[in-house]
Amino acid sequence: MKTTTKLSLLLVSTVLFFVCWFLYVQRSEEQQLKLLLGSSIDSKNTIFDRVLKLEAAPFETFIFDYSHDDAVIDFLQRRAGQPFPGNPEKLLRAFNLSAIWLLRPDMSQGFALCSPAAPELGAFPLSKIQLQKMLSQRYFHHFFISTAKGVLEIRCAPLQPTADRDRESPPQGFLCAGRLWSPAYLDMLSGLTESSIRIEDIRDETSVPGTAYAFDTGTISFSRVLRAWDNRPVVQMLITSDTPVLREFSNASDAKIFQFLLFFAAIQLMLYVALLLFVRLPLRSISRSLEKASPRPLARLAQANNEFGKIARLIVNAFAQQQKLTGEIAERARAEESLLEANQRLKARDQELNATNMQFLAANQQLQANLQQLRESEQQLRAQEAYLRLALDIAQETVWELDVLTGRMKIVKMSDTASRDSGYAREELYTHWEQHMALTEPESRERMQRAINDHVQGKTERFAYESRVQKKTGDWVWLYSIGRVSERDGEGNPLTLLGTSIDITQIKQAQEELNLLATALEQAWECIIVTDRHAQILYANPAFERTSGYSLAEVLGKNPRMLKSGKHEADHYASMWEALNKGQVWRGHFINKRKDGSLIEEDSTITPLCNGAGSITNFIAVKRDVTDTIRMERQLRQSQKMEAIGTLAGGIAHDFNNILTAIIGYTELTLLPGTDQKRLRSNLEQVLRAGGRARELVSQILAFSRQTEQEMRPVSITPIIKETLRFLRASLPATIEIRQRIDAPADVVMADPTQLHQVLMNLCTNAGHAMRDSGGMLDIGLSRIMYDGTVTCGHAALKPGAYLRLSVSDTGHGMERDVLDHIFEPYFTTKSRSDGTGLGLAVVHGIVKAHGGEIVACSEPGKGSTFEVLLPAADAGQDPTATVSKVPARGKESILIVDDEKALVNMAVQILEPLGYRVRTAYVPEEALALFEDSPHYFDLVITDKIMPRMTGFILAERIRRIRPGMPVLMCTGFAEKSDAAKARDAGIRKVLNKPYNVNDIAAAVREALDKP
Q1: CB neighbours of 791 closer than 8 A, spacing ≥ 6?
Q2: Which of 319, 347, 492, 922 could, after both became Cys, cross-link 928 (CB 3.0–4.6 A)?
Q3: Percent of the chain scored above 70 by pLDDT?
Q4: Taking a C-beta distance cutoff of 8 angstroms, is the pair 616, 585 a contact?
Q5: Across 135-163, average pLDDT
Q6: DSSP state of 967
């Protein structure tokens, strides 16, 4: 690179350095300006927003307060002759409003008030359709509308009762108010914000200008968009504010930059002059000397004592040495030219010798290649012949040739297997066509002759036929033959036919088996479905179409899940796929849905099909329709239960007589004169327990006669044992001693407490019956065990884990083995009709099974019996306090009680009035309807019986809700049917309470019916 260029680059670098420094300084000034500008803009924005917020505060207060005002709602509903709450004109002035509107729930305008300055605001500026769209999205709205007198600001809120501060009830109407942004109002805002404010139209969001700053005037401009009810821009507010501090700062920054530029220009001029005098002139002399290849231009510079003088002297010496070297180089060049000419002559001779040698090598390689090709061709011919023989032997194929003119036939090739299977040697086979035809059955002859004639006549490109031929042993085989004309004369007539034959006997047999299998599948009564490994249906037999209602075309390629009825949990299908994916056969039961929506029950067997590698390729399902069978079984079980109820009538009467004896006896004892308070309370507690036992006995009968829901919750067993034993002590003979062994600190299970009491009562009653004549020991034990798969008496199919073991033992007469095997059957008993019928153990067995437990019995004649009940222990975190009685819920609402049983009505009144409720009563439905029609808004709840003369509780509830929609109704019943829940929902009944009930039951039911939304 030239020295001048380097110097120029140095100069340019200096200039760039100063330019970068200048830009940095300017950037710093701009950053400071922007910081001041941003601070000023934020301050102006904040001031403007605060002013707007302060101006909007009275407006918001008016909307919020007056939309929670019962007087406004009442004015909207009954406006005739009634003034608007408060002074409307004062309201407009106090809250700086231009108009007030009240809208009904159907969006129609019910009232309007406008200031004298804006009489055109008497009608709400939005249509009914626009209001419905706006209020369907949300209730509170704040929007703007452009009018001839300016922009109108509108706020809307739903009208709610004063007590409904959370706005949970439906709106009773809508309160809307408007404020006109007139020029005077804008001037007031301008004065408060020390800014200039104007309103302009706006077409869309993109036309709204952003924040801007004018350096020349020192002003800041920003905008606010005012939107309509549908969020569409209506107008824009343009706010302009003066900032003189920023203008002065900008002017000072410009002066500083101008001074810097003057200083930079002076420095650049001095640097340029120095470079011109001390660098550029010496470099120009050196450059000229080198360009002309002469030392003359350096004569003056070589006399200088500086660095450029030394360079000049070195250049002069270099010129002198150059002249000397030039002469030596010329002499050496002449010698090199002579050597090059001799070398070229040697290379030409060597090339001639190499060409001759290459010709000899090419000829030798061609001979070697021809020899190798001949050897490979011979090996290929031998391999093809061996391959052909192997192929013929594997295929059991025979190649034959037929002379068309003479009928002579010969075997060209024949596999050893074909010769062995036919029983003929090659030389014995088909020396003439007629001989071959003689061994062929007549039907095959016709097919053979027809196929060959069609080919010879040119109708087909080749002949092919199947024929049944007799072997030498007398057996018949099927042959498949194929061939074509192999030789023709000069006129194109066929001379010879070449064909092949192969034994297809096994294929024909397989086809017959497949046809038989297909017929069996088509005519099978069970449904058969074949799917791929992804459960996509590939085949379904006609039985499937007949059972499901779907045709094969409708289900091909679809998943059988289309038949799901929703009656099975996800675990049912998960366990099925778990077994199938392991390659195991799955057997189970499905409740599926037909095409018409009806349900079908099926017993299914699904088998995975695997390939040779063990991978699943398909699934085949065989399903049998058992809908009718299961329906008949259910009917049979129900009839057996009803027969058992009839058979057990004596035993039920016995139990009820015991309960009634306790109730009557303790009641008479209570009524005796002179009974102290402690004895009175004890007697009444016994009566209450006997009543609870009667309710449990009714539940027991219903549970046995039909399926009922269980109330499963954490329950502590120990209190149930102690309560049961206290009740039993009075009914058992004194010769029977009761002993309890409770060794289970953690005694909580998930169970129905009533049914647990029922289990213990039945087991203890049976034990007492076994010892009533001879006396003995009744032992009740409770312990916690870890079950590992084995038990003392018998085998229980339980999952390993923690269990509570409840044991009831007696020292009675015991049972024989044949009796022990039948004790849990529902209508099996060893008692007389007057002592019971065996319902107890059957129900106990069902209850224990329903709770996920197991009951086993051990007994020997003369040594007594032991019953052990294993129930899964609940988690330690579960709390049994749900079984503890709670304090009755209180209230202050008005209740109407309807029941034809006066005693029950009086009892309900004595329960509810002390709890704070106002109660009115009726003994017939007509009287209740009359009371309700007179004061429909007086009552907060209606309690009705289910069965009453001339009208049921369902009909009464419907008529009451016609008079007052949404009225809470609570229905009591002494016998609840399965359909009652659906009927209660249809009639609008919030709660169904079963009789008999106690204080806590009815108090909780009343509170639930009142609090339920």
Answers
A1: 854, 856, 868, 870
A2: 922
A3: 78
A4: no
A5: 84
A6: -
Least confident interval from 347-361, 520-534, 742-756? 347-361
Are 429 and 469 a contacting pair, CB within 8 Å? no
Give, as one character, the DSSP assignment of residue 370. H
pLDDT of residue 792: 45
Q: Where are the beta strands (DSSP E) in 182-330?
A: 196-201, 212-214, 219-227, 233-242
| d(C-alpha 972, C-alpha 994), whole Å | 6
Give CA separation, 793 vs 92, 591, 807, 867, in Å: 91, 37, 12, 9
Place of tokens 């066509």: 433
d(CA 187, CA 200): 15
Quick one: pLDDT band at residue 806, thresholds 50, 70, 90?
very high
Q: What is the pLDDT of residue 995?
A: 83
Q: Tell which residue, 812, 910, 825, has the closest CA to residue 859.
A: 812
Q: Quick check: 970 and 941 in contact, CB under 8 A?
A: yes
pLDDT digits (tens, 9 = 90+) for 639-680: 545 544 554 454 465 567 767 777 887 787 788 787 778 778
Ramachandran category for residue 423: left, alpha or beta (phi over 0 → left; psi -120 to 50 → alpha): left
Kindly report, residue by residue over 852-878, the tens digit of the pLDDT: 888 888 888 888 899 999 999 887 555
Predicted confidence (pLDDT) at residue 828 exceeds the cutoff of 70:
no
Query: In the chain, what is the straight-line distance between the N-terminal and C-terminal CA atoms, in Å?
Result: 95
Give Dmax over CA atoms of the chain in angstroms.
165
> How far, in Å, are 411, 576, 911 from residue 951 at the CA level?
104, 52, 26
Q: What is the DSSP letter of 889?
A: P
Angstrom distance (rounded) from CA 254 to CA 810: 114
Print burial letters for 729-767: b (CB count within 10 Å at least 16), e (below 16).
eeebeeebebeeeeebeebbbbbbbbbbbbbbbbbbbbb
Q: Residue 68's pLDDT band (boundaries 50, 70, 90)?
A: confident
Residue 826: phi and psi, rounded to 5, are: -65, -25
How is 175-210 classified by DSSP, letter by letter? Answer: EEEEEEE-HHHHHHHHHHHTSEEEEEE-SSGGGS--
Determine contact, residues 399/414, Cβ cutoff 8 Å: yes
Cα separation, 403 vs 497, whole angstroms: 7
- CA-CA distance, 220 to 243, in Å (whole number)? 7
Strands 969-973, 991-994: pairing is: parallel
User: Tokens 């949300």 belong to which residue?
Assistant: 138
Query: Which token pair is 948?
Result: 């009453």
Residue 873's SS3 state is strand
Tens digits of per-residue pLDDT, 562-575? 888 888 888 888 88
In angstroms, the CA 577 to CA 431 distance is 64
CA distance 622 to 603: 8
Number of residues assigned to the chain: 1013
